[in-house]
Amino acid sequence: MSVSFIRNIAASPKKVLTTAAVAAAATGMVLAAAPAQAATGQASSAQAIAHKMIPDAAQFSAFSKIVEHESGWNPSATNSSSGAYGLVQALPGSKMSAAGSDWKTNPATQIKWGLDYMNSRYGSPAAAWNFWQAHNWY
């Protein structure tokens, strides 16, 4: 570090604060980006699991559209007003325990429960999506 650089810093505390604020903001942006990347990875992992469980392209597409609208593919998504939980927003979330005790954390368990629900209530994910489009819920 040069002496003139140190003098400039000492002479201009405003510059120091501005530089520190920019550095802090930059650091904050980097830290904020990490969870978004993790969520994106989690979503793509859940989508891959669902694709294996739902090989039919049309049924997968319908299931995917519902999940995208309901939770954005976030297996820990919680609706603060209703308490609905998970990828498929089961209400209450504990219903998904029928598919496995790891329902709170395992996307595969949530997908299995959601797929079973869509098939038993509507006949298929495509029929559930048709209902969702007409009513904004399923």
Return residue spans where pLDDT drops below 50 for at least 5 consecutive residues.
2-37
Instruction: Output the radius of gyration.
Output: 23 Å
What is the first-to-last residue Cα distance? 64 Å
Count of the domains: 1
General shape = globular
Which strand-content bin applies to the residues?
under 5%
Order of helices and strands: HHHHH
Description:
The protein has 138 residues and is mainly alpha-helical. It has one domain. Helix content is 67%, strand content 0%. The chain has helices at residues 3-11, 13-53, 57-71, 107-122, 125-135. Helix 4 packs across helix 5. It is globular, with a radius of gyration of 23 Å. 24% of the residues are buried. Mean pLDDT is 81; it is low at 2-37. Residues 62-129 form the Transglycosylase SLT domain. It holds the Pfam family SLT. This is Transglycosylase SLT domain-containing protein. Keywords: Signal. Residues 1-38 form the signal peptide.
Keywords:
138 residues, mainly alpha, 5 helices, 67% helix, 0% strand, disordered N terminus
